[in-house]
Amino acid sequence: MGNIVLKNVSKSFGATTIIPDIDLDIADGEFVVFVGPSGCGKSTLLRLIAGLEDTSAGTISIDGRDVTAEAPARRGLAMVFQSYALYPHMSVYNNIAFPLKMAGESREAIDRKVKDAARVLNLGAYLERRPGQLSGGQRQRVAIGRAIVRQPKAFLFDEPLSNLDAALRGTMRLEISELHHQLKTTMVYVTHDQVEAMTMADKIVVLNAGNIEQVGSPLDLYRKPRNLFVAGFIGSPRMNFIEGAPAARHGAPTVGIRPEHILVSRTQGEWQGRVGVTEHLGADTFLHVHVDGVGTINVRAGGDVEFGHGDTIHLTPDPAKLHRFDGEGNAL
Amino acid sequence: MARRVSTQSRIAWTIAAWAVALLIFFPILYTVLTSFKTEAEAIAGISLIPSGTFENYVEVQSQRDYFKPFMNSVVISVGSTLLALLVAIPAAWSMAFSPTRRTKDILMWMLSTKMMPAVAVLVPIYLIFRDGGLLDTRIGLTVMLTLINLPIVVWMLYTYFREIPGEILEAARMDGASLVSEILYVLTPMAVPGIASTMLLNIILAWNESFWTIRLTTTNAAPLTAFIASFSSPQGLFWAKLSAASTLAIAPILIMGWFSQRQLVRGLTFGAVK
Amino acid sequence: MATRQTRTLARFMMAPSVLLLLVWMIVPLAMTLWFSFQNYNLLNPANVSFAGLFNYKYFYTDPAFFQSIANTLILVGGVLVITVVGGILLALLLDQPIFGQGIVRILVISPFFVMPPVAALVWKNMIMHPGYGVLADIARFFGATPVDWFAQHPLLSIVIIVAWQWLPFATLILLTALQSLDGEQKEAAEMDGAGFLDRFRYLTLPHLARAITVVILIQTIFLLGVYAEILVTTNGGPGYASTNLAFLIYRTALLGYDVGGASAGGVIAVILANVVAIFLMRAVGRNLDR
Asked: Model-level pTM?
C-alpha cells in the first residue's frame, strides 16, 4: 500500500543546505501534514518524496522499496500542485484522463474512471470545458481528480488551497478530509497554515529551518508542544509568552499560556492590566490587555464579556494549562 | 473604470490621430497609388487618383523577371527561419526550464553578438563565401541569415517558454509521462503559439535584411531587397514600375506584420514590454 | 525540475546554438583582426605582407574616417531622439479615445515592415525628388524653390528616412507600455490633484522608462549598421557627407579592394559598437532583471 520511510535524507543546493538531516516514517493510510513558516523546507521535502528533486544524501523508500534513484513517474505517487498545474490546452476530461492514457489503459477503462472521479468531485457538468473557463475551486477539484484516477500509493499536496479565498478554503478542506476517509490512501500535505494542519492531519510534522521540530497528532502538539517554536506556531490565536519575574514565579525562565486558558475578572487576579482593543466575534471576544511588567496579553473570553477600551481587568492563567520552557526554549 | 468622454473631444482626438497616421502612412499609400499610374502620370504632380493601369505589374514581371527574386526571398527567409528554429528551440527550452546561474549571462552574450557590426566582418565573410563558392547562392545566404537572427530567435523563444509554468511539466512527470510523451502531449501544444509568433517575426526580419542580401548576391540568388536596390541606378524615369515592384515586395510582409503586431512588441523587446 | 539528468540534457540541448554563435563570432572577427595587420589588396592578391599598424594609421589619418564616425553618431543619435520623442507623443495620442483605433495602429506601424531599399527609393524618388517629388510639388504650390534634399542636406535626408522606418516601432512599443499603466494609479494621481503634466512626469514617464530603454537598445543595434538606405540614395555622398562608418568600410573593402584597410576599419567599428554596447547592456540588463 503506501507507507513512506525517509532515512537520513538531506538536500543542499550548492553551498546552501535546505534540509540537514531528516528521518521520518509515514504509515499507510495516514494523513500527514508538513507545516512550518515559508522557507522551512517543507515543499522541498515533499518534492524529494515526489522525486522532482534529487536527494543529496539518504534514502527514501515507499512500501519498503528504495525509490531514491527512481524517476517521479515510477514511484506511483500523485501530486496536487499549488498552481494546480492543469494542462491549459486540454479539456477537463482530458486533464483527468491524461495519467490513465500515460499508463496505457483502455479507452473504456479511462472513460469509466474519469466519469467516476467527476461524479465524486461534482465535475460532471464541466468535463468539456478548458481549465481557463473554471473557477479556482473547480480547477482545484480537477487537479485532485487527475490525482485520484491513478489510484496512487500516496497523494502529495503542495499548498493546494493557498490560491483560494477563505470561504472556499474551508469547503475544500472538508472535501479533502472527506476524500481521505473514503479512499483511505496515504496523504502528505504541505501547508503554512496551522489551521489546515490542525483540522486535517492525523499526524503533524512541524518543520523549521529544514529540521523537524516535533511530530505528533494535532492535540499532542497543542497540549504538549516540545519547544517555544511549536508552542508559538500551533494554536490560534497565538500562545502568550511571558519572561522575567512573572515567569520566575511559575518556576521557569519562560512560561506560555494560551489565550483560551486565562481567567478574566473585574475584581481580582494574578495580573492587573488595562484593556486595549477588543474584538467581538459573537461567540468569542478577543481582548488585548496591557499588563505592567508582563506585556500585552491576548485573552480569549466568552462572547458575553463586556469590557471596553481602557477598562481595568484582572487576569489569572490556568495553572494546569501553563507551559514552562527552559533557557534554550525547550519544554520542561 | 470607463471614463466619461465627451463626443466632441473624442472627435477631436480622432481627427488628430487619423491625420498623423495618414501622414506616416502616406509614402506607402502613394507608392501603391503610383503603381497604378502610367509613367507620364507618375511624374505629373501630386495626384491621388491613378488611371488604374496594371501595365506596370505586367512589365515588372516580363522585363525584370520579378518572380525569381520573389522566390529567392521566400526560400531564404523561410529557410533561414526554420533552420534557426531547429537550433534555437532546444537551447531556449533548456534555458527556460533548467536555468543555471550562467543562463542569464549566456543570453546576454548571445544578444551581444547582434551588436557586432556586420561591416566589421564583411571582408572575411566575403572571402569565405568567395572561396567556398557560396557567393550568390541561396544556401549561403540562408545560412548567413540563420546565424544573424539566431540570437533573436533564442531570446524570443526563451521569453515565450519561460511563461510555461514549470509545475505543469512536473505534473506531467508525476502523471507518468515519459520524456517523449511529455514533449508530445504537454510541451508542444503549449509552445506552439510562441514558436509560431517567433517564426512570423523572424520571417519578417529575414525578408527585410538588406546588408548581406545585397552584398552577397548578384543575380542568381538575389532576393527582393537586392532586386529593388538595383533600381537605384538611373535608367530613365520608371517610377510607376518601381512602385509596382515595391508594392509587390512589401505587400506580403506588410500583411503578415499587421497580423503579428501584438506579438511583435513582445518578441522584439524580449518580453520586457507586453 | 532540477534533477541531474535534466541538467545534463539541458547542456546538450544548448550546445548547438552556443557553438554556432561562438564560431560565428570568433572566426570572422579573428580574420578581420589578422587582415587588419596585413597589406592585402584584392587586385593584387599574390602580394600580401605584414603591415604593422599601417592600416590603422591610414584609416586614422583619412579625413573621411572622422567624418564617418561623426555621421554615424549623428545618424544614430538623431534617429533615436526623433523616434523616442515622437514615439512618446504618438503613443500618447493613440492612447486617447479615438474612433477606428485598430486601423490607425495598422497605418502607423506599417513603415516598420517596409524593406530598407524600398523605403529609401520611395523617399528618394517620390517624396524628396527636387523635380517630381511630393515635397517639391508642395513647395512650388506655395511659390518656393524646391529643396534638393540629397544634394543640400544628405545626412538629414537619411536621418528622416531612417526615422520614418523606426518611428512606428518606438510608437508601438511605447503604446503597449502605456496601455499597461494601471488605471487606478492614474485615478489616484488625479485624486491627489496632479494635473496632466504632473501625471506625465511623475507617473507616465517613469512607467515608460523600461520600454524606452528597450527601444534605445534595439534601435541602436540596427542603426549602427544602416547601409541600404545610404546605398540607394546618396551612395555616401556628396563627398563623404552622408558616409557612416559601415558605408566607409564597405567602400574601402569592395570598391577600393583594400582588405587590410577595410579590416582595420572593421576593428574600429567593433570597438565603437562595444563601447555603445557596454553602456546599453548594463542599462538593459538591470531593467530586464525586474
From this structure: 0.78
